Structure formats: structure tokens, C-alpha cells
Amino acid sequence: MQDHHDDGRGDHADRSGAGRGRDALAGRVTVLTALALVVVLVCGALGVWQWQRGHVVVTEPPAQQPVTAVSEVVDAGADGDRAVLSAGEVGRRVVVSGAFDPAVDLLVPGRPLDGVVGAWALGIVVLEDGSGVPVVRGWVPEGEPAPALPAGQVDLEGVVQPPEGSDVAPSSAALPADQTWIVSAADLVNRVDYPVANAYVTATAPQDGLAAVAPADPGQATRRLDWGNLAYAGQWWVFALFAVVIWVRAVRDERAVAREDGAEQQEDGSTSGGAGGPANGPGGRDMSGAR
Predict the structure, then answer these.
(1) CA-to-CA distance for 200 and 202, rounded, in angstroms?
(2) Which terminal Cβ of the chain has fewer Cβ within 10 Å, N or C?
(3) Which among 51, 14, 39, 55 has a CA at the least distance from the CA of 250?
């Protein structure tokens, strides 16, 4: 019976060894997974940080910038790129100092406000340098006259807007001499004998009898791309992906090694049991000499 009891202890040892092998494999896989997760999270966070640094704000939103003189933003005598408003100039808050030209007192019809159709009251403020800046003084309901132009020196605050194109005109029909479809220097320059800025200003606090006109384009912060930081962001994300690939291969290799070890242990156990079993007869007696 001694050999029979030895076989039982061997089977128990084999099962215990297999259990310890599975536990060791699970422990190694857990460690590898934890390390891979840490690397992915760190690389991913660094990539997001670099991506955010790659989108640089050059200027803050124009509405948040200090109020400045209109001559610092628009220049009626400029040409080339300076004659066109930049993205950072649209929506700037400015002070227009000068006097309204009494010869230019216009209405811009077909302009709704809060669902009611009306007209803009448009004038030109002549600055100290002799140039003119179109100013939308406010809004009146359709059919109602606008208040008279203020006399003398004015200092009004408003928001700079780009000139309008013909595509915003609600109609191409002919209008009376005191009306115009769009606010554009190309139109206004034909009514005066001085240069007119290629922009206009909407008054923030219009005079009595006029409602304020909200600027069509409030202006946005200007941004630029920093390609160096964007490249670093992509690099960190590649590192994160590489860590995932390494983790997959490491876990696969660990499991392959565990399977090989398990197969070897099973083979060793079956070989050992085969050598002892056939050599002994029932009861553990040696039957090799029996006739």
C-alpha cells in the first residue's frame, strides 16, 4: 500500500504546483496591467497638455480689450492690408470723437430688431484728421423718422464692424437719396469729398428715440497653431499606444510560458505514474517472477 499512498501525494503535489503556477501568472499579469495603465494615463495626459499648449491665444476677445480711439483701429487713408480689418480688430470697442457730417443723414431699411422690421440710422463722424467713420446711430421702426443728427462735437462709444457687402441687401431696388441698402465705404465715399474708413461703428448708447443695434460680428479671440507642441502631443500619444502594444505582447508571452510549464509538469507526472503502476501488481507485490 506504500506505493499507492505515494501516488496520492504526487497527485496532490501536482495540483498544488499547478495552482501556484496559476496564481503566479495572475500576479504577473496584474503587475503588467497596472504598469501599462499608469504609462497610458501619464502619456495621454501629457499629450492633452501639449495639445492645449499648441493652440495659442494671440489676442483676447475684442469685447474684453480696453476701449481705444477709433483711429487706433481703422484708418481711412490706409491702403493694402492695413485698409482691411483684421480678425483682432473686428468687435473692438472704440471711442469716436468728432462731428457728424450734416450732409449724410441716412436710413438703412429692411433691418429687423427683435422680430420687428425697421431701419438703421446712419451717419458719418468726421475726425480731426478730416477722414470720416460711418456710425450706425441706432434703430427705428419702419416708417418712423430718425432723430436729427447731434450737432457739434460728439464722443460716442461703439463697436467696430467690417463693411457690408451687397449680399446682405434685402433688395436691389432703387432707394431715395436719403436711404441706402448697405453700410459700405464703397457707397458712402460717393456722397462725400473726404476719405471714408472701410468699416463702421455701431453706437453702444444711442441717443433718445433710437434703439441700440447689436453688432453683427462681436469678434473672436485670435489663435495660432504651435506645430512643435502639437507634434509633441502626437508623440506622447504614440508612446501610450506603444505601451498598450507592449502590454499585449507581454501578457501573451506570460500565458504561453505558463502553458509550456503546465504541459511539462503534466508530462513529468504521467511518466512517473507509468513507471510505478505497471511494475507492481495488486497489493503492491512484485509479479515479475510469477509463473
Answers:
(1) 7
(2) C
(3) 39
Nearest CA among 196, 222, 211, 245 for reference residue 74: 196
Three-state SS across 95-140?
A: EEEEEEEEEEEEEEEEEEECCEEEEEEEEEEECCCCCEEEEEEEEE
Beta bridge partners of residue 149, listed in sequence order: none
70-88 pLDDT, tens digit each: 999 888 766 655 567 887 7
pLDDT tens profile 206-253? 999 999 999 888 777 666 677 787 788 888 989 999 889 988 888 888
DSSP annotation of 146 reads P
Task: Answer for the pair 182, 119: CB distance below 8 angstroms, yes or no.
Answer: no
Q: Encode 193-244 in three state secondary structure.
A: CCCECCCEEEECCCCCCCECCCCCCCCCCEEEECHHHHHHHHHHHHHHHHHH
For residue 198, give the nearest of 99, 92, 78, 104 by alpha carbon.
78
Q: CB neighbours of 236 closer than 8 A, spacing ≥ 6?
A: 43, 44, 46, 47, 50
Q: Are 104 and 136 in contact (CB under 8 A)?
A: no
For residue 275 the three cell numbers come to 513507471
